[in-house]
Amino acid sequence: MPNLNELKKKIVESQLWRSMFRHDYLDTPRNRVLQIMANVWLHLHPPKIRRHALRVRYTWCMGGITFLVFLVTVVTGVILMFYYRPVAEYAYADMKYLQHDVPFGMIMRNMHRWAAHAMVITIWLHMFRVFMTGSYKPPREFNWVVGVVLLTITLLLSFTGYLLPWDQLSIWAVTVGTNMARATPLLGSEGPFGEVVGVTSRYDARSFLLGGTLVGPPALLRFYVLHCILLPILAGLLMIVHFWRIRKDGGVSGPL
To answer: pLDDT tens digits for 134-171?
Structure first.
């Protein structure tokens, strides 16, 4: 049986562990300065930036643009929440009221909508740039995983927001989209190993998303909570981790 201390040492010294957790620094005056200068909370802007990180043709500024349009969706989304009720009887009427009666309501809704579309496009371009420049390689593989999770959350934000207008297009689009959840392994009634776990069409991943077997009022409320509370909070927290790790990993990676 291997020694626990040796096993712990192997885990701590592995590349996976080193990519997730930064190692401790010796308590020296220079390292104290580095800890302060590299701390996101104590020093928001890095004291120095590598020259290649300022080249638009290298970074495309896609990461910063993605964060900018995320802020636009948050601000406009909060404004839209003042005029929207996530209830089946009022949701569609509230959208029409917002469009045609609220001052600048059409502008706010269109800004929110097009910023959301832009965020999906820019985050894909950002991931493409990171992949093409090899910025996912050690020691940045953990931050690449964080970015992939942020990409998934962005797509979920777009999907959950699609139902909120509560018109025929959104209802049937979400019906088709959530039907895919039936094929989820272990969690879907029609997915692999679903019968082994014992899930049914009444208790599976799709029914969890919709709050039932059909797209109805419970689904509207659940998608509203996911779109306005849970997913934005998760995205914000992961963005903080993402920005922090960029600093800890030495800034934007250089050209190959």
So the answer is: 999 988 999 999 999 999 999 999 999 999 999 999 99
Is the torsion defined by CA of 151, 153, 155, 161 positive or negative? negative
Domain that holds residue 70: 60-248
Q: Do the Cβ atoms of 221 and 209 come closer than 8 Å?
A: no
Q: Which of 254, 242, 253, 247 is nearest to 34 (CA)?
A: 247
What is the rounded distance in angstroms from the CA atom of residue 147 to the CA atom of residue 246? 11
Question: Which CATH number goes with the domain that contains 176?
Answer: 1.20.810.10
The span from the CA of 221 to the CA of 208, in Å, is: 12
- Is residue 132 assigned to a domain? yes
Which pTM does this prediction carry? 0.90
Query: Does 256 fall in a domain?
Result: no
Q: What proportions of the chain, in percent to the nearest 5, are helix, strand and coil? A: 65, 0, 35
Number of domains in the chain: 1
Q: Is residue 55 part of a domain?
A: no
Q: What does R_g of the chain's alpha carbons equal in angstroms?
A: 23
30 found inside a domain: no
